[in-house]
Amino acid sequence: MLPKNRPPTHPGEMLLKEFLEPSEITQTELARHLKWPYARLNEIIKGRRGVTAQSAIALGEALGTGPEFWMNLQRDWDLWHNLRNHKAISRLSKAVAA
Question: CATH number of the domain that 42 lies in?
């Protein structure tokens, strides 16, 4: 369920605050472990880049969470932000034939 009064937690913030900082793992160490450029990981952590399915799989394997955890965080983030700017579309009056 999406929060109503605040944005959901971005996957990058979750990664930093709940995984890296408590484990005292640096971004550089994780980036090397994942074989990613540092910039890729840092952009996710700063909220400038989203988590793709490929990155969710890698993070899930490296951190023992499973990819669904990261994809769900990203889905909630994307939906919340897109709903803020969405212009309602009227309901289709007739059923569309398949």
Answer: 1.10.260.40
pLDDT digits (tens, 9 = 90+) for 54-79: 999 999 999 999 999 999 999 999 99
Indicate whether 94 belongs to any domain.
no
**31 assigned to some structural domain:** yes
Is the model's pTM score more than 0.85? yes
Round to whole Å and give the CA distance between 63 and 75: 19
- Give the residue among 5, 7, 29 at the shortest CA–CA distance from 76: 7
Within a domain: 98: no
Per residue in 20-65, pLDDT (tens digit) is: 999 999 999 999 999 999 999 999 999 999 999 999 999 999 999 9
